[in-house]
Amino acid sequence: MKPPLELAVNESGSGPPLIMLHGLYGSGANWRGIARAFEDSHTVLLPDLRGHGQSPAHPDMDYRRLADDVIALMDRQGLERARLVGHSMGGKVAMTMALCHPARVERLVVVDIAPVAYDHGAEHGGIIAALQQVDLQAISRRADADAALAPAIPSDLVRQFLLTNLQREGRTWQWRIPLDILADQLPVIQGWPLDSTPTWSGPALFIHGEASGYVTPAGTAAIHRVFPQARVIGLPGVGHWVHAEAPGPFTEHLTEFLNPEPLK
């Protein structure tokens, strides 16, 4: 058994623990805007998953290892159970936690991902390659890197998100995410770790963007098979970044689910 990594985490608020898990190329900071709405009712934990943000990297990105990292974080915080919210890669971590450590999860919210393997290798491989090809010695400011990425990544929204990983180290710039590891582990990150999938019958909410394409009818069927108590909600006209594109409706659904009357 490989030892878990110690994750960097931001904590705020008070009340029942709520852990919010970010997606690929992200960090716990991605959730700060949404987290503010829950700080009066929850102790909100925003960890950086392994290889992201301020957390250490590791060549193994298996979701069971990522889940173990978050369980170890809960142990350090003295948390027996927590409410989980996870987007994309973080959603797969949250689902894996519920399935492999069912007693540690009170409520589960998964954002724009299903318990299935995906084939977005060309898209993500292209993103990682574009980041690797930026000549970091030739840039003097973030705008230079933005311009270098624009031909391969035309979406301004996506580029600005990716550029949150560009940081200055002395007089030079560095990517804080381990691009070589992410490239190597991309099939693992896209996959689903549990061949013989158990089920989890706790309260679960799956929110997805109907314009995203990440949650298909087959994915919805897998959700109901693995999480029989799940409620699945699609937001019309919304893409993969559900909580960023539709923060109002997302927060309303999340509030209703996390604060039921009565709480079971």
From TrEMBL:
<protein>
    <submittedName>
        <fullName>Alpha/beta hydrolase</fullName>
    </submittedName>
</protein>
<keyword id="KW-0378">Hydrolase</keyword>
<feature type="domain" description="AB hydrolase-1">
    <location>
        <begin position="16"/>
        <end position="247"/>
    </location>
</feature>
<dbReference type="InterPro" id="IPR000639">
    <property type="entry name" value="Epox_hydrolase-like"/>
</dbReference>
<dbReference type="GO" id="GO:0016787">
    <property type="term" value="F:hydrolase activity"/>
</dbReference>
<dbReference type="InterPro" id="IPR000073">
    <property type="entry name" value="AB_hydrolase_1"/>
</dbReference>
<dbReference type="InterPro" id="IPR029058">
    <property type="entry name" value="AB_hydrolase_fold"/>
</dbReference>
<dbReference type="Pfam" id="PF00561">
    <property type="entry name" value="Abhydrolase_1"/>
</dbReference>
